[in-house]
Amino acid sequence: MEEFINEFKLNPLKEKEDLFIKSFKLSKDDLDSMLFLGMVNLNTNITLLEKQVQRMHRFQFESFIQKELESLQQKYPSGKPIQFELFILDENDDFIKDKLGGVSAFTDWEGKMCFIVYPNEKIRSTLKSEIVHEYHHHWRIAKLGISEDNQTLLDRMILEGLAEHFVGVVLGDACLGPYKEA
Questions:
Q1: Starting at the edge strand that comes first in sequence, how are the strands of the sheet with 103-107 ordered?
Q2: Which ranges in the chain belong to alpha helices (H)?
Q3: Quick check: helix, strand or coil at residue 114?
Q4: What are this entry's molecular-function GO terms (predicted)?
Q5: Which of these, 11, 53, 67, 157, is most buried using a 10 Å CB contact count?
Q6: Which range of residues forms the domain containing residue 80?
Q7: Once rounded to an integer, what is the mean pLDDT over residues 24-28?
Q8: Exposed / middle / buried, residue 107 (Cβ in 10 Å: 0-12, 13-18, 19+)
Q9: φ, ψ for residue 39 (rounded to 5)?
Q10: What are residue 145's phi and psi, to 5 degrees?
Q11: What is the pLDDT of residue 23?
């Protein structure tokens, strides 16, 4: 995120979306998905964004995610390198803050995980649950050679249920996500 902020400061007239795509080597579709999942609005004031980045560093969420993923990889090897990105949640996204504990995440079909996090210490336990959930997606994609092309809606629903079951096995039922009742 710092690279994006620095690039924007050097080129304040350049389109923020283009700078973000370039900084993170994303497609427009990837960016749209992340914005849909609650990532910080790219039109957020750059000073506010810098403060949010500083809070993320203070809470050391990136190293926390890395350590948790390495621990899971050691216990449940996927045979594939761990890759993840950490982004800041839009602080105006009350749904994710209130209903999902301040964390949104997904794993792409290559097994790369993306965590979108509200920079607040109170989300750490939710983040841990999401790390385990997303690692399960990473693991299944790697071990079973799953691709988007060979998945039906039912397969995806089962994949979500299995990932949440994995959270219960690894962390206990108290750590299951808010959608366990769905």
A1: 84-88, 113-117, 103-107
A2: 2-10, 16-24, 28-36, 46-59, 61-75, 94-99, 124-144, 153-171
A3: strand
A4: peptidase activity
A5: 53
A6: 2-181
A7: 88
A8: buried
A9: -60, 150
A10: 65, 35
A11: 85
